Amino acid sequence: MYGQALTEERGPPMALPQSALSELLDAFRAGDGVDLVRESVRVALQELIELEATERIGAAPYERAEDRTTERNGHRPRMLTTKTGDVELRIPKLRKGSFFPIILEPRRRIDQALYAVVMEAYVHGISTRAVDDLVEAMGGAGISKSEVSRICAGLDETVGAFRTRALDHVEFPYIYLDATYLHVRNQPGKGGQVVSMAVVVATGVTARGEREILGLDVGDSEDEVFWRSFLLSLKQRGLSGVKLVISDQHSGLVKALSRAFQGVAHQRCRVHFARNLLAHVPKGQAELVATAFRMIFAQPTPADVDAAWDKTRDELAARFPKLGPYMDDAKAEVLAFTGFPREHWRKIWSTNPLERVNKEIKRRARVVGIFPNAAAVIRLVGAVLIDMHDEWIAGERRYLSEGSMAKLYDTSDTEPVAAIDNGDA
């Protein structure tokens, strides 16, 4: 497409110069077929780069042209790994402005996003030493702020469309909410303070048992106003049919849920609750308590789970008095999963299904270290989530079977379990 567009604007592609032909002939005479193929690739790529530079400048080398915008000012080397091996290319430098060939820009969305975030930090002078080294390795040291802005704008448009797409095509009975934390500068420039900022992600399981990424945002995970705004934005985009929300016990989130999803059941993540539970016992007794707690969830029926909870509660409270009221207060929400099909329990009693999502976000963010601003976080995390969403949609296996989802709707007229307390809403 790129080559076609240039051909339409400026006529047929230029012929290979004599120097390039000589290089190919030398490789041919050497009798090394691999070197010949690699050299052919290098020459072809180099000519595409020179052709694009000509388009950018408005004139070929040594050509006099009235519409010339700048002049060439030498080249800088750039090593590119191809299927034929590493080839060294020469990127034209300009006297005014900067130039980076389109054919060398990252192709995958996530790679583009990572490239954009790294370059944004670099051109604004707020990158770390590790990022500076990465920029040098990527051959992007000469890139301009305007070029970075162009790349960012394209990605922002894609991520923005994904974040605001309609959600009214199907019902989402199960919603998962979780937060992970990244380091971000809260003000532009080196004077900006580095803070820990929450990236909140919402995923859902459709009435057909398929998973989708629903939304993301950046803010304070303990702030009720932030959570309420995020949840209402999902509803405004058409989210409906929610029967159970699975999340940790962020104070702001719980309050926001009671207002945005009135009458909907809430499953408090059993994994996070267990960690909090263990914080109330001596380290030497932690394994004993953890084992007793896990046994509650090994029971086969809702009644058995309920009885096991009460029994475990009494036994633990006898040794650790603080655990009694703590377990009493949490029981309804930690056991909310028992009001849903048995086949779903393992996938709805915690936010563990979001662990892979958060790990991938962290893996990509580790390259950046400190994000230059919140917009850069949205850009990179959004690209990660779009790729993951597409992977889920393209997958052949449903997250929850069609038969088990039918059971969910067979009991849809029963009273919600552990409905979120509306409090003083």
From TrEMBL:
<keyword id="KW-0238">DNA-binding</keyword>
<dbReference type="GO" id="GO:0003677">
    <property type="term" value="F:DNA binding"/>
</dbReference>
<keyword id="KW-0815">Transposition</keyword>
<keyword id="KW-0814">Transposable element</keyword>
<feature type="compositionally biased region" description="Basic and acidic residues">
    <location>
        <begin position="63"/>
        <end position="74"/>
    </location>
</feature>
<dbReference type="GO" id="GO:0004803">
    <property type="term" value="F:transposase activity"/>
</dbReference>
<dbReference type="InterPro" id="IPR001207">
    <property type="entry name" value="Transposase_mutator"/>
</dbReference>
<comment type="function">
    <text>Required for the transposition of the insertion element.</text>
</comment>
<feature type="region of interest" description="Disordered">
    <location>
        <begin position="60"/>
        <end position="79"/>
    </location>
</feature>
<protein>
    <recommendedName>
        <fullName>Mutator family transposase</fullName>
    </recommendedName>
</protein>
<dbReference type="Pfam" id="PF00872">
    <property type="entry name" value="Transposase_mut"/>
</dbReference>
<dbReference type="GO" id="GO:0006313">
    <property type="term" value="P:DNA transposition"/>
</dbReference>
<comment type="similarity">
    <text>Belongs to the transposase mutator family.</text>
</comment>
<keyword id="KW-0233">DNA recombination</keyword>
